[in-house]
Amino acid sequence: MRLQPVALALALAPSTNAAATWIEPTHRAQVSVQHNNHDYSILTWFRDAAVEVFFGKRLRDDDAEARKTNPEIAMRHRDDIVLRFNATTFEQRRALAEITKEFQALDIWTIAHEYVDARLFNAKRYMPGLVRKLPDSLKQPEILIYDLPSAIWATFPNAEKTTQGFSSSSQSVKTSREGMGNLFFKDYQRLSVITSWMRLLEAMFPSLTEMTSIGKSFEGRDIHALRVGARNEVEEEGGSRKTILVTGGLHGREWISTSTVTYLIWSMVTAHGKDPMITKLLDKFDIVFIPIVNPDGYEYTWQTNRLWRKSRQETNTEHCPGMDLDHAFGYEWATNKNSGPCSESYGGDSPFHAVEASELAQWARNQTSQNGVKFVGFLDLHSYSQQILFPYSYTCAAQPPNLENLMELGVGLAKAIRLSSGEAYTVTSACEGAVAYRGKDNDNSRMEGGGGSAIDWFYHELGAKYSYQIKLRDTGSYGFLLPADHIVPAGEEVLSALKYFGDFLLGNNGIEKGSTEHSPQSPRPTAGQWRDLKRRR
Questions:
Q1: Which partner from 5, 154, 239, 287 sits 20 to 30 angstroms from 62, CA to CA?
Q2: CB atoms inside a 10 Å sphere around CB 337
Q3: Are 155 and 255 in contact (CB under 8 A)?
Q4: Which residues form a coiled coil (predicted)?
Q5: Do residues 352 and 313 touch, judged by C-beta distance below 8 A?
Q6: Distance between CA 131 and CA 99 in Å, rounded?
Q7: Would you kindly state where each structural domain of the chain is located, as residue ranges?
Q8: Are 225 and 264 in contact (CB under 8 A)?
Q9: Rounded-to-integer distance, Cα 275 and Cα 264, Å
Q10: Phi and psi at residue 51, in whole multiples of 5°?
């Protein structure tokens, strides 16, 4: 076998560690392991794996406390790792883009301007093939997460917490709003728990909230929404209402997006009448919150596969179910049609083939045509990479008519987050956020298609002129496996952004006025800011 000499050479290579048994360094809570020191490179990992394969000896301490995990999770993900490719040059990004198109063992987690994160399935099997395809400058990526099963298990509530789970009949919850918030946001929550919680909020705040179902998922689950707003008597008699839509959970594994939407709901309903900005916002607008657009995928991440991304809809390939809802909407859908059912970005065989995307779009159209609703803003929450993205996603060649306003508000949202927590969010178009490299004649190569996105459809078809996709925490230490103690900080960040968003809309009555008028709360970006934004793009 041709690879054996290489593997054996790597296995027998001298190590910088003197101890016979190597215990990997840990990061933070000893679940998501990030290796930034020179002692632990991809070659070190390859060497350790080779020892195990060829000599049957494990160099990892399987009894370490950090590796206590669920047996099913350990079996499914024990040989998976998460890599970061520091791809900064044209050649590096082009090579990586081409590899991802043909190498199905790579699951792209996020694409940023200076790096690409990806999960490598069954690294023992596929690492040699990947290394052969990579250019020399990319052959030693960082390993962001080595012990993936432990990182996954750490995102679930532990057994003790689970027995104390939220119940809509709990007397302690009914009698203490503060206690309800503290309990609910201590952990990520199941779909059934979130549904009960939303019903309870409707009962507790009847003048502010209205719970509804916007449609059914492929497996028949309700897609629940909560409308929050303080309507006066005139509006209740049939007056139209400007509306902001906030969605989460289009991708099942992005739990922080769902918990952030629920945190926004809680913050809005409990602060009305106390916080002047929130009170003013809810007096003037309705905000419709949909925490889980993809309930089938979300439930599947709790029951079977924590890292599942797509819906659970059947496809024409038996072993590749599911569709990427963020590539399933009808606007410029065809630019993403080349991906097959086994691709993580597969958006179906036709526009709105995905049931959940179709249900959301039909509900939104009915709201505008039958109820006089005017969608003035759309915030679609995802994870991860800390980015604020605006239309268009399908191409980098076209620019939205109100580009300057979108950039201005995007910069303001990022500033509001930074003032709230100190975290930095970058601002760019959704297309630029997914481009691997820019070739000749402004041609772009992407690691996943951009057509059929939710923000493009709501922006172009529904007229929501301020449409953004916000990719939440973090920038890679945990990726999709963000620990539960980030739920409240992430929620506070987006709450600050939402308040700024509403303040901006109130400054011009929620109507797009053109590029020459600007909200007094959001000064026009300076020339230096424009240059910085263009440099990022």
A1: 5
A2: 17
A3: yes
A4: none
A5: no
A6: 11
A7: 4-153, 181-536
A8: no
A9: 14
A10: -60, -45
Task: Report yes or no: 462 and 374 within 8 Å, Cβ to Cβ.
Answer: no
Phi, then psi, of 426 in degrees rounded to 5 = -85, 155
Longest Cα separation, the chain: 80
Quick one: pLDDT at residue 450?
78
Confidence check: pLDDT of 20 > 90:
no
CATH of the structural domain 181-536, one choice from 3.40.630.10, 3.40.50.150, 3.50.30.10, 3.40.50.300: 3.40.630.10
Q: How does residue 4 score in pLDDT terms, banded at 50, 70 and 90? A: very low
Say if CB 192 and CB 224 are below 8 A apart: no
**For residue 323, what are the CA distances in angstroms to 189, 310, 320, 340, 342?**
23, 5, 9, 10, 9
pLDDT tens across 425-452, in order? 999 999 986 654 555 544 455 666 678 9
Q: Comparing C-alpha atoms, which of 398, 357, 408 is closest to residue 514?
A: 408
Say if residue 516 is exposed, middle or buried (CB neighbours under 10 Å; 0-12, 13-18, 19+): exposed
Q: Which range, of 16-20, 92-96, 195-199, 319-323, averages the lowest pLDDT?
A: 16-20
pTM (2 d.p.) = 0.80
Amino acid letter for position 289: F
Distances (CA, A) of 359 to 101, 215, 280, 342, 460: 30, 5, 31, 23, 18
Q: Which residues sit opposite 470 in a β-bridge?
A: 381, 388
Torsion angle, CA of 158/161/163/165, rounded to 10 degrees? -120
Measured between its terminal Cα atoms, the distance across the chain in Å is 46
Read off the pLDDT of residues 275-314 as tens digits, 9 standing for 90 and up: 999 999 999 999 999 999 999 999 999 999 999 999 999 9
pLDDT tens-digit map of 337-379: 667 899 899 999 999 999 999 999 999 999 999 999 999 999 9
Percent composition of the chain: helix, strand, coil (DSSP 3-state, to 5): 40, 15, 45
3-class DSSP state of 287? strand
Q: How confident is the model at residue 386 (pLDDT cuts 50, 70, 90)?
A: very high
Q: Which residue has the tokens 């290489």?
A: 6
Please tell me the distance from the alpha carbon of residue 380 to that of residue 453, in angstroms, as a whole number: 10
84: which strand partners?
Answer: 117, 142
Mapping DSSP to helix (H, G, I), strand (E, B) and coil, where does residue 214 land?
strand
Beta bridge partners of 183: none
